[in-house]
Structures are given as structure tokens and as C-alpha cells.
Task: structure prediction
Amino acid sequence: MATIAKISNGASAASALNYALGQDRPMHEKTEQWLQDNQLERPVELTNCRAVAVGGTNGIDPFIAKEQFDVIRQLHNQTKESNQVLRITQSFALDELNPKVQKDWQKANDLGVELAENLYPNHQSAVYTHLDGKNHVLHNHIIVNKVNLETGKKLREQK
Result:
């Protein structure tokens, strides 16, 4: 069963999205070696990224999500440079999704997209699947634009 490991606010959408995609950032050396040892290759469009699978909700293209999030913030006059996104880390047990099975990379991402659609149906979300870290556990970085597509109001969490 998937676990929500962490939920936090992100001041900057650009920073959160840049980290999650990891474009033009090399994968950790140990992760690269692990991929080679297990004869696994990342999808061609992700060879220069830390993410191994990507997805989005409400028309989001994970490669240009920064710009798409910004358009909605501008449209609804929510241009304050703080508290722009919600960051969710969703992880999967090794016996649930196997990082050595490439089809499971996309399955993990699909489950992240489904979670974002169910929890935040009126918000843009970008989902980036990683397998770095200890034991190479598959996990998603889900970045949710706090601006509601319908109302233009910002998401506020209940404490």
C-alpha cells in the first residue's frame, strides 16, 4: 500500500518543480550504478533527469509545468512569491512496486496522478517518480499548484 511520507508547503513553484524533475541534474552516482547493474534504462525523454516517469493533472505537461502553473497564478492575480505549491511525497513498498521492473515506474506515477486527481481535482498537479535513495524505493514527488482553477482562490490546509 502506498504511503504518504510527507506533505509540506513550497514557497516557490519553480524550485519545487525543478527539484522534482531534476532536469540537467545528474542522478546520484550510486543510483546510476544500480541502474546499470540491473540493466535498466530510463525513458529517452528523461535521460537527463532524476525522474524516471512523469505525469500531470488538468492538462499539465511535467516538462513545462512551471510555465503552466505561472499562467494560472497570473490569471487569478495570485502572484505572491511565497506559499505557491503543496509538495507531497508518496512512496511504495518494495513488495508492492518493484523498482527493478520498468513497468512499475509508470504504474507508480499513474498512482500519484490518481491521488492528485482525487485529492485536488480543481488544481494543477505535476507528478515525478524517482527511485533514488536507500533501497531504490519508488516514490513520487507530487507538486500541486495551490491556486484553484475554478475559483482562483488559494488552497488552505486544515490544521
